[in-house]
Queue: 2 jobs
Job 1
Amino acid sequence: MTETLLVATRNRDKAREIAAVLGDLPVRVVTLADVAPELDIAETGATFLENARLKAVAAARAAGLIALADDSGLAVDALDGRPGVYSKRYAPTDAARNARLLAELHDVPDDRRTARFHCAVVIAGADGVLAEIEETVEGIITQAPRGEHGFGYDPIFRPRGATRTAAEMTLAEKNALSHRGKAFRKAAAWLRAWWGRAAGRCPR
Ligand code: IMP
């Protein structure tokens, strides 16, 4: 039986990302644009998890479907965790956000430029939250942007143990170690087990 999963986003790239991770499941992925175009969910949470919860619960209720929402961003230790849940709103464009962070860290030495990307994923159904997943990837903020791939803060983030920034990696290389890659793979495993149980089969 084909299940339907609502990915609570209007970002088709994100929907494609989760659909790829769910590749071997008989699942149809839809987005808010498909089933609840009017729904406007304010991201008022103080944490990534709270925001993901708000989006997943509101989407599941509005559409009557199992909904998955994610919220992600960058936390820099020398800036007390900023930009955090304001990652998307830290400046008007990706280039301006990166420039702002580099300016704020201009006198911070390499050994204190530690940072991490967070990704919170929440899966909800009609009765509320079903599962919560949080993953991170540790790294440092470089002295200057490097690389053309990816998006957001990728050009100034070098994952721990890597010699290149996330923007110098292919999408496959980044997904293998990224906060969202790890969280989406866990979410896929959870859904596989949950749908397996729902159908009376043993989860794989
Ligand atoms: P969202 O909640 O996933 O839309 O992400 C919020 C913001 O965090 C994005 O607009 C980016 O600025 C930043 N961000 C999240 N994940 C990444 C990533 O993998 N690379 C670079 N920036 C990211």
Job 2
Amino acid sequence: MTLYSRIIGTGSYLPEKVLTNRDLEKLVDTSDEWIYSRTGIRQRHVAADHENASDLALNASRRALDAAGLTPQDIDLIIVATTTADMIFPSTACLLQAKLGIRNCPAFDMQAVCSGFVYALATADQLMKSGQYRNALVVGAEVYSRILDWTDRSTCVLFGDGAGAVVLTTSDHPGILASRLHADGSYAHILSVPGGVSRGEISGRPLLQMEGNAVYKFAVKVLSEVAEETLRAAGLAKSDVDWLIPHQANVRIIQSTAKKLGLGMDRVVVTVQRHANTSAASVPLALDEAVRDGRVRAGQNVLLEGVGGGFTWGAVLVRW
Ligand code: ACO
């Protein structure tokens, strides 16, 4: 019998505080018109001072567990995709495990920047297919507001905070049909947070920097390539995709990707206007929205895609 992993519950969480483009006009020399016309973003959520990635992850996880009809005790594998971990260690996944009140199951973080959730989901799928785990919790959680230079208008307008989670269970029918992951470290310089901790001090500059145009071109190219590769691996055609849920960085990247794939925007889930780019949280946040509002339905093919710093990129094709 072939073993698959299936998503049986989704959840998400956005911090209460909303920062609109108009609010940003008071911080840097920008305008709602510039931000919206270049990116499609109108607003983003920002975590409160006391909220860390593990807190956002906890709220999203509880909602995903409720949707799945499971309790934390049913979970035997936790993967948290994040670039904005609460601390250097323990991992955010271990902190989340403790907050969920469970023990002993493996818990680890996945660091693949904006592709993190897709990397984590593909990894969980492979581990579950081994038959060793029954129910996994896979989370994307980020507090990008902590790694932005709030005086740099070219980057601070693009990002937001949030978390999304899914619960996976093993099943004899799919489930996750195929996944493909890639990375090319030679592009590290076009998007990075080039700082670290050394001998008790911060070394380098621990704030996000980006070559916007280079990132844009790279993202459009690899998102369409990896979509086609993943569909081929599952023996499906582009026309079989019911919903494309790509990383939410910029609506123009999303539109160009959909066009290259021959998909109308009526088959693409877009949340970037309200969330901005929440990095590893963006795909599960968009997925949860489309599941809860009834767009994603049983039997449909859903293509999840990530692209981000590293550079990293990948896709997971799911039969709902
Ligand atoms: N408000 C007003 N003006 C601005 C702002 C701002 N917030 N930011 C930059 N500008 C100015 C620049 O200074 C420049 O001015 P100049 O011509 O006087 O020098 C002008 O606008 C044009 O700048 P460009 O960078 O050429 O603008 P562009 O049209 O390329 O848009 C953007 C920039 C939105 C960043 C675009 O390149 C982009 O979306 N890139 C993708 C980046 C992305 O989404 N990254 C997310 C992380 S990666 C990922 O998730 C895949």
